[in-house]
From TrEMBL:
InterPro entries: KR_dom, NAD(P)-bd_dom_sf, Sc_DH/Rdtase_CS, SDR, SDR_fam. Belongs to the short-chain dehydrogenases/reductases (SDR) family. This is NAD(P)-dependent dehydrogenase (Short-subunit alcohol dehydrogenase family). Residues 7-190 form the Ketoreductase domain. Gene3D superfamilies: NAD(P)-binding Rossmann-like Domain. The lineage of its organism: Bacteria, Pseudomonadati, Bacteroidota, Saprospiria, Saprospirales.
Length: 240
């Protein structure tokens, strides 16, 4: 997929942060972006902002919940109707609940698994036929927390360890069908994740547009080469 122009990407959690920046970088390269959010108003506002920026590609914002397979299928179908095909799926939507296991609630555990792991399964299942038909690309946004465990991370670690394993297994399932699969595993990123408000104090972190550029670079890789897992860290971490 060296030529991104006129290709269409389905990006979950695309109204802000990494998802928004992935959509923007793809649109700068001439691709189209279907961005989803649990809120139609948020998705529409993000798409309007992207379209107003004058990028070659176009954006479509829609409400879709990754926790529902039916919702994901409907969104993929709408995107195909709008653009003719869905060539790339970027499974980015995620949540974070961080607490000692003694304090972590069953509801927090369930939401973390439902969004970060089952949600990706739903997005992949919904988009699989399109990816196979178009010899497309699946990219999941995992985390370094998918290989590095930490205190108060039981739910998040479980979801991201599972996501890394899931993605690599899917890669083996579909590689003979012409579909490329990569999981991107960022460290600290300056986003709104977990109610964080990005500021100048986050200048040392990976910026969302950096992840967007990695996605574009992956899509431009020669067909013969597959970086199946990409770990990304800040060059100079903040001193503790």
């Amino acid at each position: 997929m060296n030529n991104i122009k006129n290709k269409t990407a389905y990006v979950t959690g695309g109204s802000k942060g990494i998802g928004y920046s992935v959509a923007e970088e793809l649109m700068k390269a001439g691709g189209n972006a279907i961005i989803t959010s649990r809120s139609q108003s948020s998705a529409s506002a993000a798409a309007d902002k992207l379209n107003a920026a004058g990028h070659p590609g176009k954006a479509l914002g829609m409400e879709a919940d990754v926790r529902s397979l039916e919702s994901q299928r409907a969104a993929i179908a709408r995107g195909k109707e709008e653009f003719g095909s869905v060539d790339v799926v970027v499974a980015n939507a995620g949540v974070g609940h961080f607490a000692n296991i003694a304090d972590l609630t069953a509801e927090e555990w369930q939401e973390t698994i439902d969004v970060n792991l089952t949600g990706v399964f739903n997005s992949v299942k919904a988009g699989l036929d399109e990816l196979i038909a178009n010899e497309g690309y699946l990219i999941t946004i995992a985390s370094l927390a998918g290989t590095n465990f930490f205190p108060k991370g039981s739910a998040y670690n479980a979801s991201k360890f599972g996501l890394v394993g899931f993605t690599q297994a899917v890669m083996l399932d579909v590689r003979d069908k012409g579909v490329k699969v990569t999981t991107i595993m960022p460290g600290s990123v300056a986003t709104f994740f977990n109610d964080h408000q990005p500021s100048e104090a986050d200048a040392w972190k990976i910026q969302p547009e950096d992840i967007g550029q990695i996605v574009v670079d992956l899509l431009r890789m020669p067909a013969r080469t597959l970086p199946s897992k990409v770990e990304v860290r800040p060059t100079t971490p903040k001193s503790k």
